[in-house]
TrEMBL record:
The lineage of its organism: Bacteria, Pseudomonadati, Pseudomonadota, Alphaproteobacteria, Sphingomonadales. Its EC number is 3.2.2.31. InterPro entries: DNA_glycosylase, Endonuclease3_FeS-loop_motif, HhH-GPD_domain, HhH_base_excis_C, MIG/MutY, MutY_C, NUDIX_hydrolase-like_dom_sf. This is Adenine DNA glycosylase. Residues 46-193 form the HhH-GPD domain. It comes from Erythrobacter litoralis. GO terms for biological process: base-excision repair; mismatch repair. Belongs to the Nth/MutY family. The keyword 4Fe-4S applies. Keywords: 4Fe-4S, DNA damage, DNA repair, Glycosidase, Hydrolase, Iron, Iron-sulfur, Metal-binding. Coiled coil: none annotated. Binds 1 [4Fe-4S] cluster. Its cofactor is [4Fe-4S] cluster.
DNA sequence: TAGTCGTGGTA
DNA sequence: TTACCAAGACT
């Protein structure tokens, strides 16, 4: 019975696999290409908590700019962070560089799940996925799609996260010896296109005749998840400091601390807002906005942004100065602001500031 | 274990 | 508009 589940799923995958830039066609031998594990690894890291549609342009840009893991290992971390801007979860980008350098130093990716698991940014899911997809190893690959499909297939009513252990056991039981990589990707394709979180399309499902959840009429309600906490509302202020330099204008950018929210990313200076606290309203280099440059501030309005665990209303104030703002930072030509790699929050603020200009 | 950490699409 | 959520890792 368990063997027939993987057979039915692989048959479905052979006919319905999505064509993706990082994907080997179903049933095809592993590519004999030194960059193949690199491309699998890069795609898997990018796909962590991130949709296929969002990843595609970043994957194309990264592989065009850094075709091999050695190229990425040699890149300045700042360049990689800037290239990652907009994709979110920026600790992934920091770990990406660490991992690339570790892999380049050891002469390639480990082919076994245990070796992969020791690399920065590779947890249980990603190491299993790379072992199976890039190297053809039998590995039990469990992501949110697999959790959903398995919970429904076996009518597992226990709520998450407690259900993780029985889910893993069931996933282990249906993972085939051969084509484990295709099987993993088939489970994820099924979860994203057929066995979806809302309104599963059981009529199209190759496993519907095996599905206990469907039989019992509870598939759509599974897996049971804990209620989410409400996001707090936060307020903060960012500062758009501009100067004229020759023919062009420049804006003062800072770099955020390496850890925490938007860690390591370029940003506008702000008043110290965080997911836990409102900002002070004061500029970071000392004094309140009415002090040092009394009267020079122009109120540009505010942008809204939602993070994983907070809503933020970020007010924006503008000043044009001739000296230096003080503190660490750099003047950045506004003409080339796209290249600064601002995360989306500050990209929104920049659009607001520039919409008010000229 | 539970909290932290982005973003954009969708209903 | 709001709430959910997507190929999770780390602490």
């Amino acid at each position: 019975m368990t063997a027939s589940i993987s057979d039915a799923l692989l048959d479905w995958y052979d006919r319905n696999a999505r064509a993706l830039p990082w994907r080997n066609p179903p049933g095809a031998p592993l590519p004999d290409d030194a960059a193949w594990p690199y491309r699998v690894w890069l795609s898997e890291v990018m796909l962590q908590q991130t949709t296929v549609a969002a990843v595609k342009p970043y994957f194309e840009a990264f592989t065009r700019r850094w075709p091999t893991v050695e190229d990425l290992a040699a890149a300045p971390e700042d360049d990689v962070m800037a290239a990652w801007a907009g994709l979110g979860y920026y600790s992934r980008a920091r770990n990406l560089v660490k991992c690339a350098r570790a892999v380049a130093a050891r002469g390639g990716f480990p082919a076994e799940e245990a070796g992969l698991r020791e690399l920065p940014g590779l947890g249980a899911y990603t190491s299993a996925a790379i072992a199976a997809i890039a190297f053809g190893r039998r590995a039990v690959v469990v992501d949110a799609n697999v959790e959903r499909v398995v919970a429904r297939l076996f009518a597992l009513r226990q709520p998450l996260p407690g259900a993780r252990k029985p889910i893993r056991e069931k996933a282990e039981a249906i993972t085939p010896e051969m084509r484990a990589g295709d099987f993993a990707q088939a489970m994820m394709d099924l979860g994203s296109q057929v066995c979806t979180a809302k309104a599963p399309r059981c009529l199209l499902c190759p496993l519907s005749s095996d599905c206990e959840g469907r039989e019992k009429g509870i598939a759509e309600s599974l897996p049971i998840k804990p209620a989410k906490k409400a996001k707090p509302e936060r307020r903060g202020t960012a500062f758009w400091i501009e100067r004229i330099n020759g023919p062009g204008r420049e804006v003062w950018l800072v770099k955020r601390p390496g850890t925490g929210m938007l860690g390591g990313m370029r940003a506008l200076p702000d008043d110290g807002w965080s997911a836990r606290d409102d900002g002070s309203g004061a500029a970071p280099w000392g004094g309140n906005p009415e002090g040092m440059w009394a009267g020079v501030w122009e109120d540009l309005g505010a942008v809204r942004h939602t993070f994983t665990h907070a809503h933020l209303t970020l007010g924006l104030r503008r000043a044009e100065i001739s000296g230096e703002p003080g503190g660490e930072g750099e003047w950045w030509p506004i003409e080339r602001l796209e290249e600064a790699g601002l995360p989306t929050l500050y990209a929104k603020a920049a659009r607001l500031a520039l919409a008010r200009e000229s």
